[in-house]
Amino acid sequence: MTHTVKIDETLDIQNSIRLLETLTKYRGEEIALDCSDVKYLSACGLQVMLSALNTWGKDQFSFGIINPSNVFMDGLAILGLSSETLLEGQNI
Length: 92
Known about the structure:
By secondary structure, the chain is an alpha/beta fold. It is built from four helices and five strands; from the N terminus they run E-E-H-E-E-H-E-H-H.
């Protein structure tokens, strides 16, 4: 079963800490992050997601980003990542 976690509109440092806590609860399980409402993506938020991507990959569980907002996609580009890095689950 894949757990879907809805990401807050603002993925700043405060919400990144909450995301980390949520991800920790679901470690060892399939997870998808719904980023449809994201209106601000901080480097901290992206770092949490990239760390989770690598952790889930090492643990051999599915980790995905679904419904990325345009702002989320723009944030990836501004922070220097291609959309394929997160959306296709590529390890960095």
